[in-house]
Design goal:
The chain is mainly alpha-helical. The protein is 76% helix and 1% strand. The protein has helices at residues 4-8, 24-29, 31-40, 42-57, 61-67, 80-108, 110-129, 134-160, 168-196, 201-208, 211-220, 228-233, 237-248, 254-272, 277-280, 284-302, 305-310, 312-319, 324-349, 351-372, 378-397, 399-409, 416-442, 453-471, 480-489, 502-517, and strands spanning 69-70, 76-77. A hairpin with a 5-residue loop joins strand 1 (69-70) and strand 2.
Length: 518
């Protein structure tokens, strides 16, 4: 491995300019890849359905009539234990699928893993639709969440292996687009059903519509190519080259893509001779990579995404907001718009400024919302609603979308699925803890903090902001061979943006020789 001093003095003769910015022409030339990414990310639409469903259904009068209990001031609430049981179903499914994804996808490939996830997800949704008890709903959620959890854990890894470097951030941010799209669509379905149906059918319809993304993906999955990186690892280079052509079209420079991918995989195979895969996630440069990914995803939990994103509508009802389902519908539409705003920014400004700047701004926003909540007036409540909607927009513009780029592009090629699976498991465990505590914090028959809960999340977000400011590197525009070299060389986070790699220069020389002999 070249010394840091040597590589920093080299001229950049590599394949990619990591400071270049995507243009509309890049979008048009890579439209095929973008469509494949959106298709691969169909199961994360179900993740968006799920994270919205509990908070939204809890606010439906029809669901409250079936499973709620009488509370203060003549209102009905879902018991804390029932909320915890439902939240636990989501957590168990995501947690177990996170670890299962690595084993299954490494064994049978990315495509077959996605197909299996679709079958399991559909089964779980059907169990939920026919439920007559909280426990049966819990069982269906656990099954369905495990199914779409396979796609949620695998999708970013799959896309990271095929996305062009220049648009990799945008391609990976599309998973959050589908998640937020699922949140918005579910809030629309729940709002419509709540307004036009009476009885249990009002909350059963939102549950059964969750089969649609899984069915669409399952029907088209036989024509979905396998991951080129997985095929290279399995020593099937011809199949990998064919997969690259299918993903990118006949004009794609397959030789350069294969050369870059093989260089990264070869370097990892050499290192893997002295290490154990799962233990290596916590050692050396791979340990640094794991910590970066985990901290970025935990920052989503610390900043309060489960409150603003999941329990927002339920809080609106408890706080006395008029027509909370409609306000919640508007809030999710604004969040979807925020995610769309992030797409042209992630590969133009980079990951670090968007995430760090967004976290600091949102932390200040939590303080503002908390201070306003100290006033019990109607005007204060209206201001809280407005600031929460704006906060949700900002979240989706920044860490809500960009975290997926960091999560998928940071791990080394051989450990990518294992690293991402561990990250999802840890994030899910923390999310579970937050969701188990949340009912105690906001229910009117418990702590009844309301928007004052923002003070809690502000305290959690401060150390996360400090870590991201000092330790999050900029990886925009870097191919995996470059990232491998920089992490192995121990390049400080602040130097990632300007660091000139040896491997990129060597690949550039090989490309020039290939073109000269062609």
């Amino acid at each position: 491995m070249p010394a840091v001093e040597h590589t920093e003095t080299r001229t950049n003769a590599g394949l990619d300019d990591h400071n270049s910015k995507p243009t509309l022409r890049d979008f048009w030339e890579n439209k095929r890849v973008l469509l494949f990414c959106m298709y691969i990310f169909l199961l994360p639409v179900n993740f968006g359905f799920e994270v919205t469903t509990v908070g939204k259904i809890l606010a439906m009068n029809q669901f409250l009539a079936r499973f709620g209990v009488a509370a203060a001031h003549g209102t009905r609430v879902i018991p804390v234990t029932s909320q915890q049981i439902l939240n636990a179903g989501t957590t168990i499914g995501l947690f177990t699928s996170a670890f299962a994804t690595g084993f299954i996808s490494d064994l049978v490939g990315r495509k077959k893993t996605i197909m299996l996830g679709c079958f399991i997800c559909i089964t779980g949704v059907l169990v939920q639709y026919f439920t007559h008890s909280i426990l049966m709903l819990f069982g269906g959620k656990t099954i369905a969440t495990f199914g779409f959890g396979l796609g949620h854990s695998l999708g970013p890894v799959f896309v990271a292996e095929l996305a062009p470097v220049k648009l990799r951030g945008i391609c990976l941010a599309l998973i959050n687009t589908n998640i937020v799209l699922g949140q918005w669509l579910m809030s629309l379905v729940i709002y419509t059903c709540g307004a036009h149906y009476v009885g249990d059918i009002a909350w059963r319809i939102p549950l059964i519509v969750q089969v649609l993304p899984a069915c669409i993906l399952l029907l088209g999955s036989p024509w979905l190519p396998e991951s080129p990186t997985w095929l290279i690892i399995k020593q099937r280079p011809q199949d990998a080259a064919a997969a690259y052509r299918t993903f990118n079209g006949p004009k794609f420079n397959v030789d350069v893509a294969m050369m870059t991918a093989q260089a990264a995989v070869t370097a990892e195979l050499e290192l893997s001779k002295q290490r154990s895969s799962w233990l290596q996630l916590f050692k050396g440069s791979d340990g640094r990579r794991t910590l970066i990914i985990v901290m970025v995803y935990l920052s989503q939990q610390f900043i309060g995404t489960n409150f603003i994103g999941g329990y927002l509508t339920y809080y609106f009802r408890l706080a006395g907001v008029v027509n909370p389902l409609a306000i919640g519908q508007m809030a999710y539409a604004v969040q979807l718009f925020g995610n769309l705003c992030s797409l042209p920014l992630v590969d133009r400004f980079g990951r670090r400024p968007i995430i760090v700047g967004g976290m600091i701004t949102m932390t200040v926003g939590l303080l503002v919302i908390g201070l306003i909540s100290l006033s019990p007036t109607k005007a204060a409540l209206n201001a809280i609603v407005a600031f929460m909607v704006i906060w949700g927009w900002l979240y989706q513009v920044t860490i809500g979308a960009v975290a997926y780029a960091v999560g998928a592009e940071t791990p080394s090629p051989l450990l990518r699925q294992k690293t991402y699976s561990l990250n999802i498991a840890i994030s899910t465990a923390v999310s579970c803890a937050v969701l188990q505590i949340m009912p105690y914090l906001i229910n009117t028959d418990k702590a009844n903090l309301g928007a004052k809960v923002c003070f809690v999340f502000m305290g959690l977000s401060l150390p996360a902001c400090a870590y991201l400011y000092f330790c999050l590197p900029e990886m925009k525009g870097r191919n995996y061979a470059e990232l491998q070299e920089m992490f192995q060389a121990g390049v400080p986070a602040r130097k990632f943006k300007t660091y000139v790699t040896q491997v990129n220069a060597d690949l550039g020389e090989k490309r020039e020789k290939m073109e000269a002999t062609a």
